[in-house]
Amino acid sequence: xxxxxxxxxxxxxxxGLGGSGIATAHALIAGGAEVLAWDDNPESVxxxxxxxxxxxxxxEADWSAVDTLLLAPGVPLTHPRPHWSAELARAAxxxxxxxxxxxxxxxxxxxxxxxxxAITGTNGKSTTTAxxxxxxxxxxxxxxxxxxxGRAVMTLEPPxxxxxxxxxxxxYQIDLAPTLDPSxxxxxxxxxxxxxxxxxxxxxxxxxxxxxxxSGTAIIGIDDDYCRAxxxxxxxxxRNVVRISVTRRLEDGLFCEGAQLFKAEQSSxxxxxxxxxxxxxxxxxxxxxxxxxxxxxxxxxxSPDEIQAGFRSFPGxxxxxxxxxxxxxxxxxxxxxxxxxxxxxxxxxxxPRIYWIAGGLPKSGGIESxxxxxxxxxxxxxxxxxxxxxxxxxxxxxxxxxxxxxxAAVEHAARDAAGDPAGEAVVLLSPACxxxxxxxxxxxxxxxxxxxxxxxxGVEPIGEQGK
Length: 467
Prior knowledge:
- By secondary structure, this protein is α/β, with parallel strands linked by helices.
- 34% of the residues lie in helices and 22% in strands.
- It has three domains: 5-97, 3-Layer(aba) Sandwich (Rossmann fold); 101-312, UDP-N-acetylmuramoyl-L-alanine:D-glutamate ligase (3-Layer(aba) Sandwich), CATH 3.40.1190; 322-459, Mur ligase, C-terminal domain (Protein-Tyrosine Phosphatase, Chain A), CATH 3.90.190.20.
- It has helices at 19-30, 42-50, 84-92, 99-110, 125-138, 171-175, 195-198, 201-213, 225-236, 284-299, 304-312, 341-348, 387-394, 406-418, 442-454, and strands at 11-15, 34-38, 68-71, 95-97, 116-120, 143-147, 164-168, 184-187, 217-221, 240-245, 253-257, 260-265, 268-274, 322-327, 330-334, 354-359, 377-383, 400-404, 425-429, 460-461.
- The strands form three sheets. A nine-stranded mixed beta sheet has the order 6-7-5-8-9-10-11-12-13, with helices on both faces.
- Helix 9 links the parallel strand 9 and strand 10 (240-245).
């Protein structure tokens, strides 16, 4: 745990007592702050109280004595309207921050030279964060990973000069971190998302821009208009900008052609790295993740050879195009995280012949946007509430069956794929749906797929997740 010593002697109100909120309250207490914590959920309040955290309804607090409101990232700061605790803090003149801001202040106070890589974007940030941390660890660097992925940031080991931090940041966390100043900041891409919390796409983009605007090196994917404009704006202001692209050759920056990653300087491009044959980095979306991770690791002083070795040993993230096992020439891939059509598209674009398991609780728009990939579908196995609707959309474009459940779909798909005349085939769970009709979350759904695959006679597990 990182004790929040920069808040010693200050009175801090904490609202939001989920996992990160409780961890943050403990960090503040350990650093000598006076904490009063609350949540709209009585069970969360009771849990915090049982762990020795002083609790009390912040509506009744003396806000004139409060220096800071530490707000959980899931609590609205601006849209659709500020949470009542934020309104009380603003009225009292108290600053409003989150746990990422707490961390960056502690880093500046204790070890400002500790490398900090902060990563954001609409898509791909978790894989890029995990890949970057893996490459650093594989190269022997003392590495801590947390934030929006896995561990709450204040539960990491305390800042030290040679300790590398790789932090995933959501837009909510950036909004609550006004002095975020990473050594290298990564902005992968921007598409409309979370507009219920940010109001407009312009405001959403402005929040995301803050992460790279405060970076020593700003690594920006320029394959969308918003990010391209941000890169141009920051470079014009004097920032060190590294552009990355998976759609075009660059005169300066990192780009890819197929599986080859290039580094361009002064219009001269040289091969840098390759993702050829690395199953966990298959697809154009993962090429962007690899480019960003490479740029961040280069900024931290790693050599191309060290980065390449880390790429080769990267196992991938569970439920994100996770290779689960092989049965002869059939590969089984768990992409349960694909909870809508846009999220399923990268996986469908990555394989030429697919036995596709899809369905669940349908999202608005269904799978119509995936029609260009239907020629790749050897057969679809439809599950959950969406099965009849998806069947109607697929129509005569590809064979399909309504399997009902994931175990049945896996069994039938494995049988059919084993007899595929092309020889090489993939059984892909990429549901393009939420999981809540049959499962608590996408992780549980992915685990059901994994267990169904591993129960097949003769299957060979892939990676630690499959063992």
